[in-house]
Amino acid sequence: MGDRAIYDLPRWMLAVGPVVVLTAVFGLLYFTSPFGDLSGVDEASTLEIIWMLTVIGSIAGIIPVVIGMLWFPFIRELEPRYLHAFMALAAGVLAFIALEMTEDVFEHAGAAESTSLALALGAGGVTATFAVMYLASRWRQRKMADVEKSGLEIAYLVALALGLHSIGEGLGIGVAYVQGDASLVMLLVLAFVMHNVMEGPTVVAAVARDRETPPLRHFAAMGIIAGGPVILGGWIGSFAQSDVLAALFFGIAIGAILQVLIEVADLIRFDAEAVATPTNTFTFFVGFVLMFLLEDVLTEVLLEGWLVPA
């Protein structure tokens, strides 16, 4: 009864609701400036650092992904062709992230003591992760040959790929935190909140085409898988500031995303005759450009000090 009541709400309310929640969270972070004093970080114990980075990682990773998932009732009610378009938008988001992380691999490799080792680990991470996920996907499809393809499984794969990507975000937060740079920590958190909120609908887009809505525990699990690794990355960044390690993690994430893009295309093809329709192509590029605006343009604005508290 409760679930049905949610779907009976006006469509505009289903679409605008998550934006209101995001605005409230963003405003709370900006005006309270919870990371305004890191002067005592050098004297903090290991346990205190781990706890604070867990809190920061949850704010930057898990919370915005969950907020983005609140769009699920709106996505669920879309017609199949619009749902496919939304999945193509999600693919555009993933493609931008993969391209951006490719640049990150080269940047970290250039800064590493052994550039060749870092590049080799990055390339190995891409290849090994893609191969493992591809073989696992083919095995699963053979086992499910007579069964309808499950969007929930694809959603978990998307969450996993995004989670691997989130480790890189956490690395940046962890390094900034132990350096005592409160402004940079706030900058990264605000940027990642805006960025990661788009990961929520990216995860649940595949689930929306299933006949039945999965239990809430699946949404909670996917939110933790997609956003939780920001915490892990923060821990790594605070205690093991390694460009070689960063290149490896980014490579792993790229490989996972490449495989997920194939899975999303297969999922659309399962319901439709063509994947690259004009509408799907358009929304794919919308997703790509949207992430460019949120990630690069927003970060530049924050770096100029427009939104960073004094």
What is the gist of this entry?
This protein is mostly helical and 310 residues long. It is 79% helix and 0% strand. It is globular, with a radius of gyration of 20 Å.
Radius of gyration: 20 Å
**Overall strand count:** 0
Approximate shape:
globular
Q: What is the total domain count?
A: 1
Span between N and C termini? 48 Å
What sequence of helices (H) and strands (E) makes up the elements? HHHHHHHHHHHHH
In helices, the fraction of residues equals over 70%
- Secondary structural class: mainly alpha
Q: Please report the number of helical segments.
A: 13
The percent range for strand residues is under 5%
Mean pLDDT value: 77
Low-confidence stretches: 306-310
Largest sheet: none
Organism: Natronobacterium gregoryi (strain ATCC 43098 / DSM 3393 / CCM 3738 / CIP 104747 / IAM 13177 / JCM 8860 / NBRC 102187 / NCIMB 2189 / SP2)
Protein name: Divalent heavy-metal cations transporter
Transmembrane segments: 12-31, 51-75, 82-99, 119-136, 156-178, 184-207, 219-238, 244-262, 274-294
GO molecular function: zinc ion transmembrane transporter activity
Can you lay out the helices and strands and say which pair or pack?
Blueprint: H1 2-7, H2 11-32, H3 46-69, H4 72-76, H5 80-111, H6 115-143, H7 151-178, H8 182-196, H9 199-204, H10 216-227, H11 229-239, H12 243-271, H13 278-303
Task: Give an overview in words.
- This protein is an all-alpha fold and 310 residues long.
- The chain has one domain (63-303).
- Helices cover 79% and strands 0% of the residues.
- The protein contains 13 helices and no strands.
- α5 packs antiparallel against α12 (243-271).
